[in-house]
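Structure, all two chains, one model.
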Amino acid sequence: MRVSRLMLATLRDTPADAEIASHQLLARGGFIRRVSSGIYAYMPLMWRVLSKVINIVQKEMDEAGALQTLLPQLHPAELWEKSGRWKGYTAGEGIMFHLKDRQNRELGLGPTHEEVATSIIGEQIRSYKQLPINIYQIQTKFRDEIRPRFGLMRSREFIMKDAYSFHASEYDLQDTYYKMDKAYTNIFISCGIKTVKVDADSGSIGGAASQEFMVTADTGEDLILKSPDGNYAANIEKAISKASPPLTLKKQETIEVSTIDQKSIETLCKEQDIDSSQIVKVIVMVAILEEGKDQPLLISIRGDQEVNEVKLFNEITNELNCKILKLSFIKEEQLINQGLAPFPFGFIGPDFSDSALKNAKTWQNKFLRIIDLTAADLQNFVCGANIENKHRFHVNWSINKYPSKTIDIRKAKAGDLCIHDESQVLEECRGIEVGHIFQLGRKYSTSLKASFTNEEGIEESFWMGCYGIGISRLAQAAVEQNHDEKGIIWPISIAPFEVMISIANIQDPIQAALGEKIYKQLIPQGIEALIDDRNERAGVKFKDADLIGIPWRIVVGRDAPSGKIELIERAKAFNEVLDAKAAIKKLIEEISNQKTF
RNA sequence: CGGGGCGUGGCGCAGCUUGGUAGCGCGGGUGCUUUGGGAGCACUAGGUCGCAGGUUCGAAUCCUGUCGCCCCGACCA
């Protein structure tokens, strides 16, 4: 390909809307163009990158026995109603774009394809003899993100590879899950990016085991906790750890202390000269349910710890056995709307009476009480006295007469000790989620009535797994991980071209001829070469070459009369003057070495 | 959804406070010079100042509305 024919449009200035390096470089290099918020056009260079990622993904998926398909993007609402996700995905902060057709039928634009895949396989597959099946597709997904940002990292329209597997047993599901784990590991290595595999929450997709593949980068939106020995890594949403031991107060009769205006843990500690680990902090929230009366929550946790809302959300969903739209902190205003007396916020204890909820209009009139393990372990602690401006000291759990659930809802943090080995201290880093594998279980097959006949002749729901890779996100994440102050440094396996031939002065017939000759020799060798034949000054060509990040560069310039050129590797300070012939030989060798992993 | 900010040529911005009919840099075109790290000079094209109302003799500028975009927060009292 010739740069003069590439409609290359590089920008000298960074577009104002690009925040992080990868977004800025892709925009400046002319790889992507924003069409609307979170909606991007992939320009020719970008499409070459994406195609390479797609090829790598296809190769590994095919080798793992998965079957490529292409599923519809318009999904009838009824399919999502059957799985119980329509309302959650369309109402409130739901992310599904949805519309009505001319017959007034409701449709959604596919943010993910569990429903469609499950219903199709359910209709198609009859017997255990046909299992397992793993189907996948690579296509555009639509998600109306609350806040699209960072270019392709979180966009509203993006390319995703998603796979859905169907099994006769949980054991067989696990087998495919491990195969996918292996395939994903291969894919990311082939793409030349460094990833960490972490335990993950399965979120609104649902299911049991799930792991994410994270590209480590400081600008990542996810926080990862991992042990230095490499034996444990988890998304903060899922991470577990051992909390540091609390400072204990001595055993003594409970006393009530006046703590005027000492609402926060911080002020309370300062004024009373106590440690935050000696306090039981109480948080009042309300779970907004899809159906029925909303459920107020009374959450107790050790004062120096924070609640992991994802864990909390999951536990409450289990406990109530119904769909929760969101959790929110109870505000004064809501109490007024419910016709309730104000709560003594900042002074609430774990034994706060249910009578506070009596006569609530649309709320349950009993708290669902959750006690975090860290709080449950405390003795002789400090907590609110349930009246304004008063706390109690030296309290024990015998004060709580209400049925309560004691579970781990604590947010793990860097510095905590690991569960698997208490000599290991958790470290944190940031990551960009590029892959996610789930063992779904039978959630979707049950709700969508997708079943097969087992060996005993009995109808049974499929065991299911699902496996995603953000193709477009991966491409940008590769840039985030591989760039310098001059521009992108593409890993060779996903670079839009492998070598750029820069002719320093195109008007010099000797240089032009040598450049063309090298170009014509590389192409038949299967080398993806780009020749910069523009009538530009050398500096412009060098700057552009650095920016768009082609891994290798041949400069044909002042040494052309003697048949010599320069060979430069973008990633290194490497710069070597060679005979054209020797350079071609070396380049072919180097590229073929770099492409085998 | 809440808070903050911005919409002026393809990109980055000034002008707005104090109304008088639009400017700078980059980029584009032509010519000459230059030619190894985003060249110089000259000429040139390109903008209903997001949109709609209003105030005014006159609006990019003031007022109202609206649309779009960006950033922060989705926070433990």
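The longest strand of chain A covers residues 427-441.
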